[in-house]
Amino acid sequence: MPDIKITPLGAGQDVGRSCILLTMGGKNIMLDCGMHMGYNDERRFPDFSYISQEGPLTSYIDCVIISHFHLDHCGALPYMSEMVGYSGPIYMTHPTKAIAPILLEDMRKVSVEKKGDQNFFTSQMIKDCMKKVIAVTLHQSLMVDNEIEIKAYYAGHVLGAAMFWIRVGAQSVVYTGDYNMTPDRHLGAAWIDKCRPDLLISESTYATTIRDSKRCRERDFLKKVHECMDRGGKVLIPVFALGRAQELCILLETYWERMNLKAPVYFALGLTEKANNYYKMFITWTNQKIRKTFVQRNMFDFKHIKPFDRSYIDNPGPMVVFATPGMLHAGLSLQIFKKWAPNENNMVIMPGFCVQGTVGHKILNGAKRVEFENKQIVEVKMSVEYMSFSAHADAKGIMQLIQHCEPRNVMLVHGEAEKMEFLKQKILQEFSINCYNPANGETCVISTPVKIPIDVSLPLLKSEARKFSALPPDPKRRRTLHGVLVMKENNVCLMDVDDACKEAGINRHIIRFSSTVHLNDTGPALATAHKLHGFIKENLPQWPVVFAEGEISIESVLVKVEGDEDEQKNVYVSWTNQDEDLGSYILNLLNRMGQ
Amino acid sequence: MKLYCLSNDPNKPCHILTFKEITLMLDCGLSMQSVLNFLPLSFVASSKLSNLPNWMPNDVSDSDLEGELKENGDRIFVDSPPEFCPPLNKLIDFAQVDVILISNYLCMMALPFITEGTGFQGRVYATEPTLQIGRLLLEELVNYIDQCPKASFAAQWKNLIHKLPYPLSDSFKPKSWKQLYNMNDVNASLSRIQMVGYNEKIDVYGALKVMPSSSGFCLGSSNWIITSDHEKIVYLSGSSTLTTHPRPMDHHSLKNADVLIMTDLTQTPISNPDSMLGVLCVVVGLTLRGGGNVLIPCYPTGVVYDLFECLSVKMQDLGVSNCPMFFVSPVADTSLAYSNILAEWLSSVKQNKVYVTEEPFPHGLLVKNNKLKHFKHVYSDGFSTDFQEPCVVFCGHPSLRFGDVVRFIELWGNNPRNCIVFTEPDFDYTEALAPYQPLQMKVAHCAIDTSLNFTQANKLIRDLKPNTLVVPECYTQPPVSAPNLTDYVIENNHDRTLIPYKWGEVINLPLKRKHSQIFIETGVAQKIVPVEVKPGISLSSITGTLSIKDNVHSIQDLSSSVNKASKHVKYEWGSLNVTDFLQKLSQEGISEPKVESHGNVVVIHLQEEDALIQLEDNSTHVVCTGDETLRTKLRSIVMQCLKKF
Ligand SMILES: [Zn+2]
Prior knowledge:
The complex is a heterodimer. Chain A is of the alpha/beta class. Chain A has 16 helices and 30 strands. In chain A, the strands form 6 sheets. A 7-stranded mixed β-sheet of chain A has the order 6-5-4-3-2-1-22. The two termini of chain A are 52 Å apart. The radius of gyration of chain B is 35 Å and the shape is elongated. Helix content of chain B is 22%, strand content 24%. Chain B is built from 15 helices and 32 strands. Chain B is α/β, with parallel strands linked by helices. Chains A and B meet through helix 3, helix 7, strand 23, helix 13 and strand 24 of A and helix 6, helix 7, strand 23, helix 13 and strand 25 of B. Strand 24 (479-488) of chain A pairs antiparallel with strand 25 (537-549) of chain B. The structure holds zinc ion. The site of zinc ion has 5 residues of chain A, from loops. Chain A: One of its GO terms (cellular component) is cytoplasm.
């Protein structure tokens, strides 16, 4: 049985730095190449030495596929391609290709300029890396080489996020990246057809959560923001420049309009306009409603949301500020946090998942004091709210996706081990299919059934169909195909034996057996033959028994009666070697009759 | 496999292809030549057009015909809402069509005629731009006809067609002409379209796969590749090898087809689109500098995008950049907006702009800078205040029979400083202008048709190497207008079969299917034992349970419960060596056989056992009465002496 091998270098029982190695049909494919935001050391990148101790990866990897622009899925890409070395193809969707380099550059700046990280990739490396990217469109079937075929499906989650179907020979895998099964304010729901892959590799960030309804969460969020405004507090919303930020902006914009609120809302990023432009130009990737109305009104032109300036941090009075990055691990959001955290009137709303080691993760776990590298200690008196706006599929969504694409096996990645265990049991119970969740560096081997496509001659299929329809209908009857495979150079073709011999240029040798049985049955020979016909039919109900010109034939078995009216009859039975079982069975039958 | 031709216009194609019991419609173009016989629709009652004299054939006094026909100069026009010539519906019942494949937005204008009220239940496939822009074209057309309702419908003239002067007398099947569909039909029809991406393989009832591939002609335009396990049919329609704004044509996927159906080649075989664009720029420059206005009748999408871009640069060079461009169409705003969000369907140059957050087309910027102004109609709010002469006006419809262009000809027709420039190749410009004559304004003809010309088409065919080439008959003869130009044909070549077709014909396409595909599953594959019968040729008999699901055949391991019919059978081959056989017989204790030879036949008689074995080159016959033990023994000896697979 052929195998599919999967080794997570990241995202194995873990969230952050997604990077999964997939081997099937002799091809090696890297799924995502992310970085871990929680680490400053070598742990932030996947361990590429697993692939090759030294030297470039090009000869080990046939292609790299990036699911979406989040850095935990593409953040290590320039490092891998330019510093470790990889010059093969990299695939991602058009919006990902447009947005990923901006986020990479952003992150590079934070890491190098703010934190003074050494051994980090440069701006030029990001550019050189992006030159290796081939952009794909949804549903397009793309041949990476003669054997690898890939196809992207809509994943929701963020603009341009895609799930990838990958096929090599008869084996296929679906890799979901991050996805979202319910439409939100600006994106549609993930969709896949019944592609029946051998393996579905699914994220499982929210493996145990069945999220409350979208509307409730939104109302909750708006209420909390409104209350904070009323008491004169400041709201900090750490976000990534693209993605959730746009959805929350739409939400606040409409609420401010409806409630006629006056408190300022700021979006603290020069990128805002540019980011919103991407949304405008890639409007075909947003949801139905936005697509329908974009000619009249661009959803991403905000009236109430204004650009933020650092000097506003100390302004008095209520305000809402969106600031990057989203996990409070560096940059402006962290700077604002340090200022505002000690005031109990203020509030920070974490709209997404935070990886371990980040300030976001610490305060979400109830930390009341946060210590920084320079020994600075910040008291956290502001209220800390977690709003799950991050568009990941919940348990229900994951189950839905499994139902939609009908995989033979499931693998869970990008989640926490205990939560995965829970979902694993659920999948096993509901679908009775195997479910795996390897840890990082652990290789998982999945056997797949063989399914080799070969040519078959039409006459062979037609003669089978003719035989089958000649038999009385029986729903339980299996259809049987019998033929000869002719393997010539690289061609394999199934045909009937005579054509096969002709094709191969050889002569078949036919072995025939004949026997005579004596029967004491008076009357004309034809009458005896009729009797025998009835008798044989009775004994072989599943067989096509033909009676013609006094002879009975069943497949290659021939039965013939000779002898005069008042004499003992000679019954000749004859068959070819291929019908040995049938022939000898009938001979026995007749012999018993004769006794 | 059969091909039905339902349209008489190779540039507005409509075919039916039947293959493997699937009925596919390839395009549903709507021929609009019929509208040229009608009087233009003007929304100004006092227009000269509404005051043309009636015309009656000499010997006819039928009062029903009164007022149906109007005369202008030597031409006769029907005074009625224009009618269109939908695809032929006599050859096939549209309810039987399983799938409609649309190549580009110019080849779908008959869709509501096919899908609405006909019992059609199939699926329609088109790319996203084809659907979105096609919608604009359909909406615009309906809007144009609706905004000028006519009180009466002329019908009697069709009965007297033989008494009418040319070209009305030569009209193609006027009795089959129909009034245009309405918005409800358009919406219902378009809601049936399923959007597909380039190179997306779509399964059709398990029997076929269809896949659109970029054709380089316009936004979202595609050629279709129709494949079964062993056959490949390529339908090539509206393709271009020139570099303009759309994604370039994808040649690779079109290669080595069993059948290549090629249609929708250029309508201006003699002129070159680049030089025409050059002429256009010169004409526009001269006219504006002379204080005249330029009227460019056009569709609301396609080449106009390139014209906006090109003209804005040229006008700057020529020092007339203070003259505005007006784009007047009920769908102008949507057309401009859509073209800038379809980056994935554009040439790489345009696509790359998106990566640096620039809009792919400059018309957004032109609108912002007031160089290009767009309005739904001439009577829309704001138009009269913004209107400024001299200027360039782009508006529809290129037939000059309806749309705001009618108003502009009425306004500008009498001034020789103005100029009307024909860029769309669909209509003959002298025919289009006939109802307005005499006109004082200048006329320039710069038809820009980027689709394949004959040289390009012939080169492409050589490259694609189809076995059989199927083309409209008119492509096998020089153009009617230039019979001496024998280069303007599709070449016949002995490497392939060339099959011409014409309207109303049903063509048998030569495609003899010999093979199909079957999947061998694990259990069966494991039992394959290849026997090399000759160097490089191996055989292996296989037996398995056949399962057929959605037309996909696969063969699985025989389950234990099946009847005796399903045993794994092998075959013997080659000849049997008599000496070898006799030796084996004696080893088994069967001695003193009587051996006789008659030519090729050797008969071995086992006297003691009363059995007979007759050996020939390719057969062995064992005649043995009664004793099964003996027969089984003999069988095993015979089989030991033979090779099998
Ligand atoms: Zn993500």
